[in-house]
């Protein structure tokens, strides 16, 4: 084999054709420069691990097995395993394209008012006294992540006791990004028990006792419905008990709602917990995503809402809060993106399109529910060791299977099935073509690792 010249003298193929002696010299000089000139050495900027969820998506894409199955990121797929542009979204898109007045101007800082007002109604209900009493301030955000972030920033700056930030309690487990969003703005986080590994349901006693023993005026993050990653939601009765504890302890509720309409297929029902808390007179905030229920993932449509408790000065409080949210928003993103906001707003403001959207939501939640049934019955048919009732008991986009990290790894290596290490599967990744393949793969790894 011919020996290769030392690498620092090798011009890259793309530069060799156009390189001049001077640029080659420059290249050599660059390679010889001391590596210590950076202001960001490894001890200051250590190599961070890749985001697990987006890393999973990348690995899935690179896998050329015809059998591969993507159960990673929470994004809806149709029965052919393809992304689904909701028919109602196509119609709204046509409305935009046919509008001679449509342009690419900036939105106001708080976003598209026609969206934010309807978005608040969607959560609180059209007749909500909070709306008529002007106790709600809404800001359009960069989808749900941006809404959680704006809320986190607001609380970091303005919700303090004796000058210190309050601790925010997250369910164990929770959406992984919650931890880093809150710690990025300096809000300390703690956990409350949530998932009971034995029953694969809610650890309600653990949750209640941790919240009851947390310091007064803690912040409690609650998933409004279709809990991510477990698919386990409190019952209406349990929500009432949770609300009673939060009230007793003066805790501050922070709702994250990314799956309204995805859990039960019914928008009102999926907003039940939020509406109950508002009825109980809480002051609270809500981060709302339209990524999943409109299939607008990459368009980044969402809202952040502040709701004041009923009081004589509530409308003034709301105005003050809105003024500070505007300052935060201006410095962070100036104003939010327009396209997804217009799509959602067109649908929310047109009764016929709204009805069609509800139909589209039922199509998505219905297909997911039928996949839960198919998966459970296949596993039971195969006699796969263990109980599988939790697959149909859990609700929403995800199922927390109970598979171990080792089993998850084996599913990926031996069967090209991609899911997060904690055993979460996105139910939307299953379809009539691959559910049997998946069930058989699970059966095989469960037996071989018993
Ligand atoms: N809250 C929760 C609970 C949530 O699951 C997500 C997304 C978001 C907020 C934010 O979504 P956005 O696209 O910013 O509106 N979850 C899925 C995608 C992700 O992690 O970004 C997921 O867990 O797969």
Automatic annotation (TrEMBL):
Belongs to the class-I pyridoxal-phosphate-dependent aminotransferase family. Residues 1-25 are annotated as: Disordered. Gene3D superfamilies: Aspartate Aminotransferase, domain 1 (3.90.1150.10), Type I PLP-dependent aspartate aminotransferase-like (Major domain) (3.40.640.10). Homodimer. It is an enzyme of class 2 (transferase). GO terms for molecular function: L-aspartate:2-oxoglutarate aminotransferase activity; pyridoxal phosphate binding. The lineage of its organism: Eukaryota, Fungi, Dikarya, Ascomycota, Pezizomycotina. Coiled coil: none annotated. GO terms for biological process: aspartate biosynthetic process. This is Aspartate aminotransferase. Pfam families: Aminotran_1_2. CDD domains: AAT_like. It catalyses: L-aspartate + 2-oxoglutarate = oxaloacetate + L-glutamate. InterPro entries: Aminotransferase_I/II_large (IPR004839), Asp_trans (IPR000796), NHTrfase_class1_PyrdxlP-BS (IPR004838), PyrdxlP-dep_Trfase (IPR015424), PyrdxlP-dep_Trfase_major (IPR015421), PyrdxlP-dep_Trfase_small (IPR015422). Its cofactor is pyridoxal 5'-phosphate. The keyword Signal does not apply. Residues 67-441 form the Aminotransferase class I/classII large domain. In eukaryotes there are cytoplasmic, mitochondrial and chloroplastic isozymes. PROSITE patterns: AA_TRANSFER_CLASS_1. One of its GO terms (cellular component) is cytosol. Keywords: Aminotransferase, Pyridoxal phosphate, Transferase.
């Amino acid at each position: 084999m011919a020996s290769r010249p030392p690498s620092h003298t090798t011009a890259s193929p793309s530069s060799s054709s156009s390189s001049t002696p001077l640029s080659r010299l420059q290249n050599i000089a660059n390679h010889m420069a001391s590596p210590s000139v950076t202001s960001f050495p490894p001890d200051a900027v250590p190599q961070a691990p890749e985001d697990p969820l987006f890393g999973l998506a990348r690995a899935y894409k690179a896998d050329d097995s015809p059998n591969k199955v993507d159960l990673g990121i929470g994004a809806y797929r149709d029965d052919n395993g393809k992304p689904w542009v909701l028919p109602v979204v196509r119609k709204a898109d046509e409305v935009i394209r046919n509008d001679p007045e449509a342009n690419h101007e900036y939105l106001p800082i708080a976003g598209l008012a026609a969206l934010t007002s309807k978005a608040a109604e969607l959560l609180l209900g059209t007749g909500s006294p909070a709306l008529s009493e002007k106790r709600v301030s809404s800001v359009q955000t960069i989808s749900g992540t941006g809404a959680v972030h704006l809320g986190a920033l607001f609380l970091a700056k303005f919700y303090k006791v004796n000058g210190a930030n309050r601790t925010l309690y997250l369910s164990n487990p929770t959406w992984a990004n919650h931890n880093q969003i809150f710690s990025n703005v300096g809000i300390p986080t703690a956990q409350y028990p949530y998932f009971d590994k034995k029953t694969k349901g809610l650890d309600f006693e653990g949750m209640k006792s941790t919240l009851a023993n947390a310091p007064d005026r803690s912040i409690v993050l609650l998933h409004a419905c279709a809990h991510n990653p477990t698919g386990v939601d409190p019952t209406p009765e349990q929500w009432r008990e949770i609300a009673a504890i939060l009230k007793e302890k003066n805790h501050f509720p922070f709702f994250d709602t990314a799956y309204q309409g995805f859990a039960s297929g019914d928008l009102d029902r999926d907003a039940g917990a939020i509406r109950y808390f508002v009825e109980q007179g809480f002051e609270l905030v809500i981060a709302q995503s339209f990524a999943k229920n409109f299939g607008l993932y990459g368009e980044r449509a969402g809202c952040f809402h502040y709701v004041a408790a009923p009081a004589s000065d509530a409308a003034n409080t709301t105005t003050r809060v809105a003024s500070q949210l505007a300052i935060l928003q201006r410095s962070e993103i100036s104003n939010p993106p327009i396209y997804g906001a217009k799509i959602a707003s067109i649908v929310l403001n047109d009764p016929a399109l709204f009805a069609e959207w509800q139909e589209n939501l039922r199509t998505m939640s219905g297909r997911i529910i039928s996949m839960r049934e198919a998966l459970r019955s296949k596993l039971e048919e195969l006699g796969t060791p263990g109980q599988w009732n939790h697959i149909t008991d859990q609700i929403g986009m995800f199922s927390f299977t109970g598979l171990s990290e080792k089993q998850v790894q084996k599913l990926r290596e031996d069967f090209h099935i991609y899911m997060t290490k904690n055993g979460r599967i996105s139910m939307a990744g299953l379809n009539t073509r691959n559910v049997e393949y998946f069930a058989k793969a699970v059966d095989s790894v469960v037996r071989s690792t018993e």
